[in-house]
Amino acid sequence: MTTEALVRRPTFDRAWLPKYGVYAAIVLLVLYNVAFTPNFLAWSNLRIQLVQVAPIVIVALGMALVIGTEGIDLSVGSVMALAAALIPLYLGYGVIAAILVSLIAGVVVGLINGVLVARVGLQPIVATLALFVGGRGLALVISHGQLKDVRNDDLIFLGSGDFLGLPMLVWIAALLVLVVAFVVRRTVFGRRLLAVGGNRAATELAGVPVKRVLIGVYVLCAVLASIAGLLAVARIQSSDASSVGLLIELSAITAVVVGGTPLTGGKVRVLGTVAGALLMQLVIATMIKHNLQPSTTEMVQAVIILVAVYAARERKSR
Amino acid sequence: MPLLEVTDVNKVFPGVRALDGVTFALQPGEVHALVGENGAGKSTLIKLLTGVYQPDGGELRYRDEPARFATPMDAQRAGISTIYQEVNLVPLMSVAHNLFLGREPRSAFGLVDEKRMVREASEILVRYGVTTDVRRPLGTMALGAQQMVALARAVMVDAKVVIMDEPTSSLEPREVETLFGVIRDLHARGIGIVYVSHRLDELYQICDAVTILRDGKVVHTGRLAELERIRLVSLMLGRDMSAVRREGFTGFAGDHTGAADAPPVLKVTGLSSRHRLHDISFAVRPGEVVGLGGLLGAGRSETIKAIGGAYPVDAGEIEVGGKTLKNPTPVRAVQAGIAVQPEDRKAEGIVAGLSIRENIALAVLPRMARLGLVSDRKIDKIVDTYMTRLRIKASGPDQRVGDLSGGNQQKVLLARLLATQPRVLLLDEPTRGIDVGAKAEVQALIDELAADGLGVVLVSSDAEELVEGADRVVVLRDGAVVGELTGTNVTTEALLETIAAAAVSSEEPHDN
């Protein structure tokens, strides 16, 4: 017989690992690098690390939202390629027009993903697989499979410029982190998103327009990916649909999972996701600095992902 | 000499005694009905007979020898076949393949002899009324036909005992006739059949013996023909006919003074849904609690969900406060003032991973926000109001709902519904799985809400709760309204009689 007594949980339990493990790991790695890696704290090094991690953070933010609804979006890399392919095409109409067009491409892809998931009822992994394959194909068709140089001062400023001593890329990524954190915490949309991920049937019965929420999440994710795509063009000053955003979906999912967002939905850790991306970047950088094989790096990444997933599982099965 | 028997078996799960000294015997060539309400122990008993569970005590004997089935496969090999409510076959494989799965006829080279398999499958299935191309994927066939394939498969494996769990729940009347034909054939061949169903007509039509379970105990066993329907129903529901007249059994105060001449706040006309609901009509006035009575599977939950826009409807009209609800969806229903408390609290009610606060505010977020931005102050205000009013016991509004007791979870769910300021409250088993104290509180709350002028529809398998909580009871059977109790007629006795009588009268439809 159930009693009315509260079921109290110890305040310090195994839940700390998925919650704070990623931060602890970052601190450890930073300490290690400060001690053993020459020039780790040099500004030029930190700057490179931040610029490299910025697009992953931006894509991972959208991925975190999708995963929060118990979904997944494999098409983010293709969306980046699509956005990148469109930039040189429309740059003639001005930089604003080119950016708008690539963002609209993101909206369209997001709508397709969202409708396939929410209305047609496909599993997210299958629905987004379609555009994972088709999106990059379309990008290659648009760009005729050629690498195009992009020389536009405004874009170059976005990709390589500084503002108050920090790269623009980092500012943009930071701003988007704040926006997404705000959306999750403060908006009706954000709260509904978590409820959909937590229990879709219950949320539907409560009168929440679940399908609209899901479509919105996929659109937001694709728009964030298209921002990452156009920033990639701005940084490397060329557009190459065959390489932009390649395999980024895996980095993004890794960042989300390592950051403590459960794949089972109902919870989104925005700062954790940022930390997850930073951690993976730090791991790779550390390995490279110490001349380890890329294959070793990959294996270490795999171990970190397994630890993160295992930690999340333990918390779930209390 | 019984074919299959268990003597004095127990089965204990953490916190629940699912079976308590149960004795059950199946004779060869006997169709034995196994009946009981939800949680009575039917499924547990079936699982013991088929090797899914092992008994904690007592003896299992099969063909006059002590038996032990370590796995369902063991039981199947010994000749005990089971057909579940849901078809446990492979939808993407052909009908013939499904029928012969694991026993495919082989050709000379050890390959599957497709031709022979298709031919034999067609021959076998004709006897079960299935005449389609057996090369079609099973999943493309109607559910009833799939059930027939499952049955054919179960019988093919040289079964001595066939256990059928609600075999007719997805069958059309014509298919039910075919099924009964097959059962009579099995009966003649000396095969023992355990038949689980809530449809009294079917039981009396096809079964020889009956065993009634309640709360894990056998409350009756014997020839079915010697047991009156009303006795059967009262034994099932655990209501001793003579002891029914006690009052104040539940937390309900009594009748509500809903204005008898007020226009109905909810009016349902001709609600129909393929196979499940047939022309259901009733009305609820403000301040009135209308009960939906009937046995399991009578269509009570479906009716409630259909009104809430969460169950497909083919025909019928739903009016709330005089306005027709067009193309009902959950979103539109909530906007119209309908609030649904689903039967399955965990699956369709609460969001266990979120806090009490988020759960209560879930349905009213737009009202708690401006330009899409949520105001936590406004939310805290309503959360506070309802936590106090419903006496939700928790460490605070931030506690995870999944960590609360069942009663408090239910209160959180009710708080969410009330926060939408509904005009009609549809409650499906509001006190199931919650402890006695919370039960009385929820019942008192229902009274209070009706007194405030809400229209309430109450579904409960607890006859006492239904009779004492409701001002009127609409009795359903097989998805249709078969009677209504009003005024002084709202008694447990009358309820049981209506449920039982409904079954009698519909058996001879030409009488009316």
From TrEMBL, chain A:
Keywords associated with the record: Cell membrane, Membrane, Transmembrane, Transmembrane helix
Transmembrane regions listed in the UniProt entry: 20-42, 48-67, 74-91, 97-118, 125-143, 163-184, 213-236, 242-263, 270-288, 294-312
One function term, GO molecular function aspect: transmembrane transporter activity
Domain of life, source organism: Bacteria
Pfam family, one: BPD_transp_2
Bilayer disposition of the protein: Multi-pass membrane protein
InterPro entries reported for this sequence: ABC_transp_permease
GO cellular component: plasma membrane
Subcellular location: Cell membrane
Protein name per its UniProtKB record: Sugar ABC transporter permease
Organism: Winogradskya consettensis
Gene that encodes the chain: rbsC_3
From TrEMBL, chain B:
Keywords: ATP-binding, Cell membrane, Membrane, Nucleotide-binding, Repeat, Translocase, Transport
CC terms in the record's Gene Ontology section: plasma membrane
Membrane topology label: Peripheral membrane protein
Pfam family of the protein (one): ABC_tran
All residue ranges annotated as the ABC transporter domain in the record: 4-240, 260-503
Chief place of localization: membrane
SUPFAM superfamilies for the chain: P-loop containing nucleoside triphosphate hydrolases (SSF52540)
InterPro entries linked to this entry: AAA+_ATPase, ABC_carbohydrate_import_ATPase, ABC_transporter-like_ATP-bd, ABC_transporter-like_CS, P-loop_NTPase
GO molecular function terms listed in the Swiss-Prot or TrEMBL record: ATP binding; ATP hydrolysis activity
CDD domains reported in the protein's UniProt record: ABC_Carb_Monos_I, ABC_Carb_Monos_II
Keyword Cell membrane: yes
Localization terms from the record: Cell membrane
Signal peptide interval: none
PANTHER family in the cross-refs: CARBOHYDRATE TRANSPORT ATP-BINDING PROTEIN MG119-RELATED (PTHR43790), GALACTOFURANOSE TRANSPORTER ATP-BINDING PROTEIN YTFR (PTHR43790:SF9)
The protein, known as: Sugar ABC transporter ATP-binding protein
Organism of origin: Winogradskya consettensis
